[in-house]
Write a structure and sequence with these properties.
Layout: E1 2-6, H1 11-22, E2 26-31, H2 39-50, E3 55-59, H3 65-75, E4 79-82, H4 96-116, E5 121-127, H5 151-170, E6 174-179, E7 182-183, H6 192-202, E8 206-208, E9 215-216, E10 219-220, H7 221-233, E11 256-261, E12 267-268, H8 269-280, E13 286-288, H9 304-310, H10 318-332
Parallel strand pairs: 1-2, 1-4, 2-3, 4-5, 5-6, 6-11, 7-10, 8-13
Antiparallel strand pairs: 9-12
């Protein structure tokens, strides 16, 4: 197939593009190489893709309506994986408008591209952040998620609602994937694993929020990619049993689906740090702090629907995943 992938210089997007190219698909990649974090890391991810047959590299902003329209009409993708977004919970407290531009306006442009070019299936990134103030664990796609605690989370919930509207109005199959704390080699420098590894190696203190009591469903990048591609291959269909009298939030009468992709095994932050210390062979200096605004105390994914519909459950052990990251970090930064 020809697959349009947004965010191909990003952590998840670059890995998804590699997987698709390696199995013989064509990939049209979109990225704007913004400076939210180290552009050189993005360029290095991209350079690995640019050497592969079947990869087309486009430099575009999601909010560039004419540019996105032209990309769809020129390249005519069969399917779309929309992973580009303004990421980060904490940054949304500092620069909220970046989330409106990229996540709301940008996603609208992608939906319009799918609508006008007969795209067979749109798979897009949502986030575990949409569960917001929910406390019932594990988080289920069938639970109501109307109480976000950050604008980032609200923008991702909005993306799900927008996708449903297009599935309803234009019968475009859409699948939203709620990712749970993705980590691994080539990861994002603003994420805890990257920040902690860098600081520990440099002998600097690390900020440990909620006094280390946060629990996260850390999910290894290879598991995320497998989940993305399996759902891409499994085109969303209507749920024949859906009822407006008792509406199920994870499915619809329209060709619309949601899935959690998480490790289904939350790890406390202090244990997470302990594993990093073991892999590096050095103890961290910890600056213990309260929970930050916009953060949630715990995440925990129910992945029953992912298992039932696409036959996949993330299973990479946190010890193995962190070890792989630390090895990559030492090699990449020559530490």
């Amino acid at each position: 197939m020809k697959v349009l992938v947004t965010g191909t210089a990003g952590f998840i997007g670059s890995n998804v593009a590699h997987y698709l190219l390696d199995r013989g698909d064509e990939v049209v990649g979109i990225d704007n190489l913004n400076d939210y974090y180290d552009v050189n890391l993005k360029k290095d991810r991209l350079s690995k893709l640019q050497s592969k047959t079947g990869f087309t590299d486009l430099r575009l902003d999601l909010e560039d309506r004419d540019g996105i329209t032209a990309a769809f009409s020129q390249h005519k993708p069969d399917r779309v994986v929309h992973l580009a977004a303004q990421a980060g919970v904490r940054y949304s407290l500092v620069n909220p408008l970046a989330y409106i531009d990229s996540n709301i306006v940008g996603t609208t442009n992608i939906l319009e591209g799918c609508r006008h070019n007969d795209v067979e299936h749109l798979v897009y990134a949502s986030s575990s952040s949409v569960y917001g103030a929910n406390t019932k664990m594990p988080f289920s796609i069938h639970d109501n998620v109307d109480h976000p605690v950050s604008l980032y989370a609200a923008s991702k919930k909005a993306n799900e609602l927008m996708a449903h509207t297009y599935s309803h109005l234009y019968q475009i199959p859409t699948t939203g994937l709620r990712f749970f704390t993705v980590y691994g080699p080539w990861g994002r420098p603003d994420m805890a694993l990257f920040l902690f590894t860098k600081a520990i190696l440099e002998g600097k203190p690390i900020d440990v929020f909620n006094y280390g009591k946060c629990r996260r469903d850390f999910t290894y990048i290879d598991d995320i990619v497998e989940g993305v591609v399996r759902t891409l291959d499994n085109i969303a269909t209507p749920n024949p049993d859906w009822s407006g009298d008792n509406p199920d939030t994870g499915t619809s009468y329209a060709p619309y689906r949601l899935y959690n992709i998480g490790n289904n095994q939350p790890v406390e932050l202090l244990r997470f740090i302990e594993i990093i210390e073991e892999c590096i062979g050095k103890e961290a200096k910890k600056n213990m702090l309260p929970l930050q605004p916009g953060d949630v105390p715990a995440t925990y994914a129910n992945v029953d629907d992912l298992i039932k519909d696409v036959g996949f459950k993330p299973a990479t052990a946190i010890e193995d995943g962190i070890e792989n990251f630390v090895k990559w970090y030492r090699d990449y930064y020559k530490v």
